[in-house]
Each structure stands twice: as C-alpha cells, then as structure tokens.
Amino acid sequence: MGNRQTSAHLTRLELEALSDQDNASRAAREHFLQCAACQQQAAEGQRLERALEQLARVAPAEDLAERIIAALPRQAQEPNANPWLGAATLIAAMLGFALAYQTAFTLRANGAFELVSDYTLQPEIVTTYPTQAWEALAAAVPWMTLAVSLVMLTIALVLTYRWTSRRGMRASG
Amino acid sequence: MTVNLFSSVALSSRLSAQIQTARKRWLARPDSDASTAATDAELVTIHLAGDPGAFSELVKRYTQAIYNVTYRFTGDAHEAENLTQETFLRAWNVLPRLTLDKPLKPYFVRIAVNLCRDWAERKKLVNVTPLEIENESDFPDADGDPLRAVSDAELRERVRAKMALLPPLYRTVITLRYTEEMSYDEMATALDLPLNTVRTHLHRAKTRLRELLEKEE
Question: Do A65 and B93 touch (CB under 8 A)?
Fold first, then answer.
C-alpha cells in the first residue's frame, strides 16, 4: 500500500483502511483527499456498512432457552446429587463436635483448666516439679475422646472437600 | 498426607470464598439492571460449584446470539434450534477447561460454528467454502455505481435478502462482525482463524455481497 501510484483510484481494501488511520498509507490519504471518485466510493462503502450494521438479529422462539435448560444433563440441575456423601459429612461433623464438647466437659471436670491456670500464674510449679506437673495435666486429659473427636472433625473436612470436588467433576462430564 | 490435607482445605476454603462472593453478587442483582449482573466468569465459578441456575443464566444470556449465528449459517430455523441446543450441551462439558479471564461468547460461538460446519458436511452442502473473488481490487466507475440510486431503506432490504446468497462462512463473518458486534480478536477466537484471515474473509464477504447487490441492477 505504501508504493501505490497516487494517480490510480484506491482499491476497496485501501478505502476500508482509510477508516482506520493507522492502516492507511500517506499516498492513499493524499489521493483520497484529491479524488472525487474515491470519496464517492467511500461514501457508498459507508452506506453498505450502515446497512450491515442495521441487520437485525434473527429472533429464536421465545421458549428456546427454557427448552435448552430443560434438556441439560440431569446432573447440571442437581447440584447435590450424592446425598450419602453429604449425610456422611454431616454425621462426621456432628460426632466430631459432640466429642469435642465432651472433651471440654471432661477437661473441666478433671480440673485441667485449673491446672493450666495455676501453671500460668505460678510457672515455678512447672520449673520446680516439671515431671509431676505434666503428669497431672496428662492425667486430666481424656485422650481417647480427644483423639476420636479430632479424627471425626478431620473426616468431616475431607468429606466436605471431596463433596465440592465431585460436584466440579460432575460438571466436567 | 498432612500437607495435602491442609492444602486441600485451604484451596477448598479459597474457592468457597470466591463462590460465595460471586453468588452474593449474582443474587443481589436487580433483574432490570444488566450492568450489575454477574460476569461470565462468576457464573462459571458458581456453575462449577454445582449451582444449576448459573448455567441457565448463561443459556439465557447467549441463546439469541448463538441462534442468530446458527440460523444465518443454516438458513433453517429447526436446524438452528437443534444446533443451538447442541452448542450449550457441549459448552457445559468444556466449561471446566476454559480460561475464565475472557468473555465466553467467542468460545460459545466457536462451538456453534464447528457444529454448523459438521452439519454442512453431513448435509454435503456445496459452497460452504467461499469462492475466490475475482478482480476484488477494482470497483466500477463512481458514476456507474448502481447502488447510488437506491435509498437507504431499500439498500438495507436488499442486503438482508442477498445475505442468504452468500456462502455460509461469509454470512457468519458478517453476522459476527455486524450483528453480534464482535471485535476481530473475538472473531478470530470464535472462528479459530488467524486475525488477518478473519479480516480477509470479512473483506471478501463484503465484496461478494456488493457484487450480488450490483448484479441485481
């Protein structure tokens, strides 16, 4: 486009490029300014552009979107399609929290919180009699209940993660 | 195992936060105000979390555009409806693999165009691939341009009628550019073609259309 003869009329491609200043060569712009035929042709091109811009969208049937939605794969309409996984998550979480509550209750009944309070207020107890201090604290902790509670809560977390992942995987088909 | 568990939980909670944010925005939108509607990416995120309403929203958002493309290609309302439906079913499968930082429309259109091409092959349609335009750089003498005498309204009507005579690919590029108002970049994505090829196709489509309009005289 840069080596065009200024006397020759612009091609349609050059006329289109004129509307995008960066794509039009200087020679083409100079010719265009002086050539009534090319200006007329550009005006006609603009009319065609306007006619194309006014082409209407072809409207689909009003219920097409609804019919498409109704025909989507069943899983797409059922976000929580695996109720067992959800129920297992809920049971694990409930057991975990119940046992955590039981653990806290037992700790309080065994005086574990008081021991911790004493150790905090009088740290010399721990420094002077470390073995006895830790043994007393260990004896106040219901280890089995605490362990089962932590296991249940971990299971609930893992199941929650798997539940959300499976919903994503179902979406990928 | 512990590290995996913690990273899984962290990922899950991060995703959950994103989903909740997107869902709140989506639910809070006024129906009449499209400017506050959820973005495509937000709807995909919600969809992947299992909310069926999000994909339905995408279907409603793009049904008209996809139908417009398929109808312009096939020229048949029934086929266009089938291809539009098939487009969304396929889109549903590929959504998890899409990059969410770009608008979905070009991807949906790409699926639709590919389906249309397959449909044309099945139907053994001729003229799907456009013919080369001869003497495309020439134009008639300005004084002899037959379109000049035609009013704007008549020109619009003729353009609409002659569109049906164009090869499907030309109809498609014109539809994407002028009816769907897509950028060249979006068209390149939608047609799976290089940008310059899209420009060339559009130029040739308009040249061919002009030839058809002039022949009528």
Answer: no
- Best CA proximity match to A86, nearest among A162, A173, A150, A148: A162
Question: In the structure, how many helices (H) and strands (E) does chain A have?
Answer: 10, 0
CB-CB neighbors (< 8 A) of A41 in chain B: 139, 142, 145
Q: Which of chain A's residues have a Cβ under 8 Å away from the Cβ of B137?
A: 11-13
Residue A96 in contact with residue A159, Cβ under 8 Å? no
Q: What is the mean pLDDT of residues A53-61?
A: 87
A13, A44, B88, B166, B191 from B173: Cα distances, Å: 17, 21, 21, 11, 9
CA B179 to chain centre: 10
CATH topology of domain B142-215: Arc Repressor Mutant, subunit A (1.10.10)
Q: What is the CATH number of domain B2-29+36-122?
A: 1.10.1740.10
For B9-19, what is the mean pLDDT? 55
> Can you give the pLDDT at residue B104?
87
Angle subtended by helix axes A83-109 and A143-171, to nearest 10: 160
Fold match between domain B2-29+36-122 and domain B142-215: no
Question: What is the average pLDDT score of chain B?
Answer: 78
**For residue B211, what pLDDT is reported?**
87
Mean pLDDT, residues B170-194 taken together: 92
Give the Cβ contact number of residue A107 at 10 Å.
20
| pLDDT exceeds cutoff 70 at B24 | no
Candidates B11, B88, B155; nearest CB to A47? B155
Range list of H helices, chain B: 2-28, 40-48, 52-74, 77-94, 105-122, 152-163, 168-174, 184-191, 195-215
Q: Is the per-residue pLDDT at A2 higher than 70?
A: no
Predicted confidence band of residue B116 (pLDDT cuts 50, 70, 90): very high
pLDDT in tens, A3-18: 555 567 777 777 777 7
Measured between beta carbons, the chain A residues lying within 8 angstroms of B206 are: 12, 48, 52
| Element at A39 (helix H, strand E) | helix A36-53
Tell me which DSSP letter residue A64 carries: H
